[in-house]
Amino acid sequence: MRTYLLIICLLVLPLAGGFADGLMLPSDESYPADLLRNRVTEVTVNIRGLVAETVVYQEFLNEWDQATDAVYSFPLPEDARSTLLLYTRNDTTFRAVLKVSPQTPNPGTGGGGIAAQVNDYIGPHGIRLKLLNIAPGTVQKVELHYISTLDFHRGECTYRYPLASGDFIPYPFDHLEFNVNVNSARPITDFDIPSHPQYQTLVSEPEQLVLRMRQPLAFAATDILFRFTTDNQVLGIDFFSTNNDTIDGHFNLFVRPENLASGTELLTKNIVFLLGNSSSMIGYKLEQSIQAISQSLDMLGPDDNFNIILFNSSVYKWKPSLVSANAANIAAAKTYLSEVTGSQGSRLDWGIDVALNQFTNNQYNNVILAFTDGRSPIDPRSIALSNVHQTGLFFVAIGDDVERARLEMTADLNYGFVTYFQEDENLLEGMIRVSEKITMPLLKNVALTFDKPDVYGLIPQVYPSTYAGAYFFVAGRYQSPGAATLSLSGEGVGGAVQYDYQVDFNASTTIDQFAALLWAKEMIDALEYEVSVYGETPALKDSLIALSLRYGIRCRYTAYFADYTTVTTSIDPGELPVISRSFLEGNYPNPFNPST
Hints:
Layout lengths: L1 H11 L10 E4 L10 E12 L2 E11 L6 E7 L6 E9 L2 E4 L1 E4 L12 H10 L4 E8 L4 E11 L1 E3 L2 E6 L11 E11 L4 E5 L6 E7 L2 E11 L5 E7 L5 E7 L6 E8 L12 E8 L7 H14 L7 E7 L3 E3 L5 E2 L2 H12 L9 H9 L8 E8 L7 H7 L5 E7 L5 H10 L4 E4 L5 H12 L2 E10 L4 E5 L6 E2 L4 E7 L3 E11 L2 E11 L8 H21 L3 H14 L6 E4 L35
Parallel strand pairs: 2-12, 19-20, 19-23, 23-24, 24-25
Antiparallel strand pairs: 1-4, 2-3, 3-9, 4-8, 5-6, 5-9, 7-32, 10-11, 11-16, 12-15, 13-16, 14-15, 17-18, 18-29, 20-21, 20-22, 26-28, 26-30, 27-29, 30-31
Helix pairs in contact: 3-4, 3-8, 6-7, 7-9, 9-10
């Protein structure tokens, strides 16, 4: 039966990384345990470049002598989107249907208990599917597909499947399996599964890797962590595209600078370290942030300039304006940081306004690195309009109380990115990795052009500087297949430069199908941020629903249902509504209409 389920999945999506493992919560309060027993978890990850498609296959045993309904709950990671959900009854595999309906929480939230705990565990981004009449003594099989991108730093690519769920699953699985298949356009120089070192290497070629880890009677005590390293010594790209029989094609572009660069290749930097020192930051979070800033100061070159700004209920500047990154100023800044204590309030919005005013031109590569653990009424569009000197705005967000939508939208519109940390992580190590990226700028004022007029629907629309050891990503649409030239231009240490790359907009409808899913994921993410920050409009709601149903990706307005038929929900491309708002000027491009 399981083989049939996997074959069906592969037919639907040829290649197919959460917070933790899926759970099956019985609906009948008389069920003799909190959860149906998780017998098997198998995770298969297919990686192309920096894109990961994950398939999670699970088996749950009804240990009762009666039939029961149950809710499958999976804590999907915030940076992923589900693309397919399958389930079984007897010898038949069904596809869960997306319908226009808000996803309901597991019952029992008001009274606490296991249902409330599972709801908290799953989080608002998680997946739920109610399954009916699971017969006594039978196994309920579920398979979830989702898409995400890898964490990347200086050639090291990291995938994490947070398996650890010991609070809910204190017993061992009968079978735990992790399979990973990597296809890279760059030589793979190293790889490891440090969390589960008892793995097999099935294929190890310069640009291809296949690993398998199997464990009987395995506990869900440790996340599965997989890493591989690629060699990259020149500025290059990864380009993926796929056509479609009924709608326009989709493409993904990853701009990948060299892993490391010498000081003579780096642009001069102006950087403001914006540190939140609210009372909630007191202790480990503030200590680690201060250490990270202190060590980041040592990464600056003698021609760079910097300042430190604190924000709480007010804003405080260390110096009135940027100062040179010489030894005396760096030593004085470290002394200042060592005396920082906690205060009340978290006005990140005021801090950003003051920090932006530190930059008087865009002669150098301008950066704000903000450390925050709370919420603040920042207005992404207002900040973008005030950001007249193309300053990259980067956030280090700590804990669960940060407002992801505001931070992501602000970073997207202001040449930056957000890096998230849990409070119990090694914060210093992660923060230093962020600093190592943004202190190595190679090109600023970056522009992308295609000598192909039918390219449209690009997201994002603002491109960051290129940094050694990092990457940036653009997704889009095209009307007709064929070869084209992509031009990447910007300003380097020697002035204006341009790099031309030959790319192929695929005619095939079967190659790199994930490109369509990743474009849709990015568009849904962006529109949901818009709704969260600026409020719902009929156009935004209709557009999100249309994207969700067309691409089979759940959004805030849709939910999975088990109807025990093979019918799937789709929508005619010609009826897809127009998205009417933009990030900056009220003219968000319609992802289905190239003329807007």
